[in-house]
Structures are given as structure tokens and as C-alpha cells.
Amino acid sequence: MSGNAFDTLLERGFVAQVSDADGLRAALADRSVTLYIGFDSTATSLHAGSLVPIMAMLHMQRAGHRPIALVGSGTTMVGDPSGKTEMRQMLSEDEIRANGARIHAQSDRYLHFDQARALALDNADWLLSLSYIPFLRDIGVHFSVNRMLAAEAYKLRLDRGLSFIEFNYQLLQAYDYLTLYRRYGCILQMGGDDQWGNILAGVDLIRRVEGATTYAVTFPLLTTASGAKMGKTAAGAIWLDAELLGPYEFYQYWVNCDDRDVERFLKLFTFLPLDEIALLTTLQDADIRRAKQILAYKVTSITHGEAAAQEAQAASQALFGAGGDLTSIPTTTISAQALASGIPLATIMADVGLATSRGEARRTIQQGGAYVNGRRVGDVDYVVSESDLAAGGILLRAGKKRHHRLTLT
Questions:
Q1: Assigned domain for 226 exists
Q2: Pairing verdict, β 394-398 and 370-372
Q3: Per-residue pLDDT tens digits for 282-292
Q4: In this structure, are 333 and 313 located in the same domain?
């Protein structure tokens, strides 16, 4: 593997587009640089698709560079039209701020802000205090409406309707880059490939205002081999928050990935050397399961810690054996309508044979012996609902060895 951080990203499949590959490679070779990636505060948690930018920042950090995780509480109040066919739902400022705080707390698990090797910032700190007319005179004057309308993000929305508030998004993101350049010497912005036009607008703004050279890199917009959006399943997002998705369920997402995705996922979501990945991905048929187990363990360890990864792996092996085949455990099919209405956990446990009666099921729950998708449930009135549905259904456990799976008709 190359010693240059840009080449590392290139070799592992992180790079879709780059503004100046040779210039960036030289800049990263000469000194430690500051870079940033923005995360809008539209949800309480990041999801598995967010691991692409997170892992990119970690590779940069490991190479001695300083990443900035920028929470976009300011830009979230405007709404990014990129990749959207409709205007985003507007959230209150309190909701946006709370989401941003949780996203920074998640990012800290990866980047360790307290060690001064990464920065956690929020663009609301400078965007919300802007005066509109001075902003238009100082920043808006550098933007061509014709060039903005030619950007893919805006072209896709023109037929359906593009609000004026969304039209301002590119200016604000470019201003973020300018602000981070001025305050922290940031010379690189990275983001999803749908952000290419927005990031280049920042590069151009810095060149016009400061006469400086900065860089842009975008990541490919990932889909799985089956065509699903990365980090999404039929049951919902694969959240990075353990309260929304337990480490066991997170582990299961990766260990059950498509065989065709294993090599790409190992390159993107682990730090395994490329030669080791090449050996793992030569495995065929049933042996590919070993590569998936390594992938699942490594990603779970990076996201939830070594102890959680060990526990998830042990639970998976105890439940499924070395093969980990979901079809190997007793399964009951329930209707989507029943699940939508919610079913008391004690009732399900009794109905599927995990307890001899509802009373015994309630006692098992009270004593800490009931689990839903690997997460202990202590509430005797817990209701199993659609929010518990994962890629393999809903996995129930009573004690250490009694398991059952629920699937939908």
C-alpha cells in the first residue's frame, strides 16, 4: 500500500472524483493538512453508509492529518437539495441542535476529539450570525446563477420545483469551506459524489477570495450488489447508535452481506492490508463465510468496541454455529399487520414456545433473560413492533440457548 494518504484512499475504493490528484498528493506528502467532512443534522444517528466518510477520515488521521467532523446545524435549517426529489422536512432548531450533538458524540468514538488529532465543529456557530445583505455582497457576488443551475443537484430539482431557501445551500456550504480555511487552514473537503458541485463551489470561492489552492474529493455513492442503498435494508437503516440497533444486529448485517460485496466492504470498512484482503476474497462457496465473519467482527469492533464485537460474534456462533445460517433456527411467520399493531413480547414468547405460559415469559423478562435481536429487554410490558424488524427478521432469545426467529408473511 502507498504511504500517501490519497493513494491509500484511491487503492481502497474511496475516490469517485478529485479536483487535482497530483496537487493533492503533493500537498499530503509535504505536510500535515487539515481536512473536513460535513454531516447534516437530519437524524439522531448516522448509519452504515456514513462509515465511508468516517473511515476516510480515520485513514487520513492515521497518516498524520487532522480531520474536522463538521455538524451542519446551520445548513440543516436550509436543507440540502442534493440527491433529493422533494424538499427535505424542516426540523426545529432544538431538534437540529440535539441531532448534531448526538452525531458529534458518535463521531468521537472513532476520531477521539479529546486527543487534539481531530476537531468537532458546528457550522451554526458562524452561519446563524450572518447578516443577509453583507453576506450577499461579500459571498453571493462570486456565484453565477447560470453555473449553479447547471449543477446536477439543481438540475434534478428544477422540474419538480426548487425552493429559494434550498438554492442558497451551495453558497452556505462554500462559505463553510472558506471559514474553515481561514480559521483552521483546511485545504481539503471530502463528501459523497452528489456533493461534487457544492464542494467545487467552495474551492472556487476560496480561490477568488483568498487566492489559495484547495482540493475536493468525493466518494462513490455506494449500493450493495443487490442494488440496495448502502446502510439501508427493507426494515430500515443500519444505525451506528447501539440504542437504535444493537451490536449483535449490526454484526448480522455484515456477516450476511452478499458474497459479491465482501472484497469491496473489506477495503472500505476495515483496516486490513490489501494483500490480506486479496487472500480472503479468493475463498469460494462456504469458505467465503470466514471472510464475512472477519468483516463483521472488524466493522463491529470499530463502531461498538472490541468487547461488543466479541459478544456479537460469540452470540452469532452460539445461535447459528460456525455457518451462521438463519434458516437453521426455529422460525414462526407472522403477518405484517399484526406486527404493525404491536405484539407483547410475553405473548410471543409463550406462543412460539420460548416459555410455557405468559406468566413464565414475564418472569423471564423480569429476571433479565429475554432478548430481542441480541438486546436484553427488561420491560415486562415491552411490545414487539416494526421497529424491531431486521434484515433476517426478528430474533428472540430466552436464556442462553433457546432461540426463535420471527419473519413476515
A1: no
A2: antiparallel
A3: 888 778 889 99
A4: no
